[in-house]
# Entry
Amino acid sequence: MAIINPKITPIYQSSVFKFQDLDELDQYFADTSSRYLYSRNGNPNSDELADLVNQLEGGAGAVATSSGMAAICAAILAYCQAGDHVLCAADIYGGSAALLNTELSRLGIAVTYVPFEQLYDLEPLRRPTTRLLLAETISNPLLRVADLRRLAGHCHDLGLKLVVDNTFASPVLTKPLQLGADISLHSVTKYIAGHSDVTAGVTVAADPEVAARLKQIGVFYGFTLSPMESWLAVRGLKTLRLRMREHSHNALAVATMLAAHPAVRAVYYPGLPTHAQHALAAEQGGGLFGGMLSFKLADDRQAVSELMRRSARFPFAPSLAGVDSSLSYPLGTSHRALTPEQQQALGITIGLVRLSVGIEPAEELLADLRQALDA
# Structure
């Protein structure tokens, strides 16, 4: 029989793996890394994805999950139990807030939201039961940039863990673990997979014991990612570095154009010199600023809808980070579950539009937005 030595890992589309005898079964339970038993416990494809992202982030171990939400849940459960308290940046994905408010609160985990301006002064909010701070490298949807090295030092001084959602930045721009974070997580659905055809997540730990706990949580809660989704995500990951360069290049061109357009009230993009954390973003991102930006029109629902109807290159889609550009509306999608008071406090108003800038020719994107805004 010819030796099979594929360059690309095949898809192990199997829910279960065979054993020859009881000795092999005992060998597995003596060392579960020696082979595979059942795909909820581990699969070569999901392990490959976790290992590759772990290498990119410089972690001690990682687990691939069935979604970004599963990655966030696993990260919090790695440190928290009933009766514990979590601090969470107020500027965060609405789904993360909904998870904390709706589900983890039912498990007895309390949460306090921290305004961006108070992230480096957590002492007044800390309780004896506070375990961690959850924050984003680049916040959704207003693109505020956290100083992760400073934040990690502050958290550790208070005996807290720092969990960072690194989705908007990707490991190409920022590696939170190398800046002192304890866990870095991603919605793989977004930049890591990159083609809007995968739903997945990954959680990476700086401590091997925490990495083992994440693996255990994934198995017991059934957060496991399927072989096919894992394989697709690994394929997407191979072009991540190239894609992030092009996303960043195009987003800066779009942000610059929007900032000069009379219909636009404000632009939120770390690559603009006018951004409050521009210098920090440049340092933390190695000169790249990512493909996400937001901008404000007048608070006129009809005007926002007209922009959506007129734009051909930015279809209205409630997700982000694909190779194709898209447009989203935080007030009605990602942050819909927040109260009107929370939305107002965060600046999420009727006129706020979020763009995920893809890798198409920049001149085509600019022309499309100009004609839509000129109307």
Residues 67 and 360 are 26 Å apart (CA to CA).
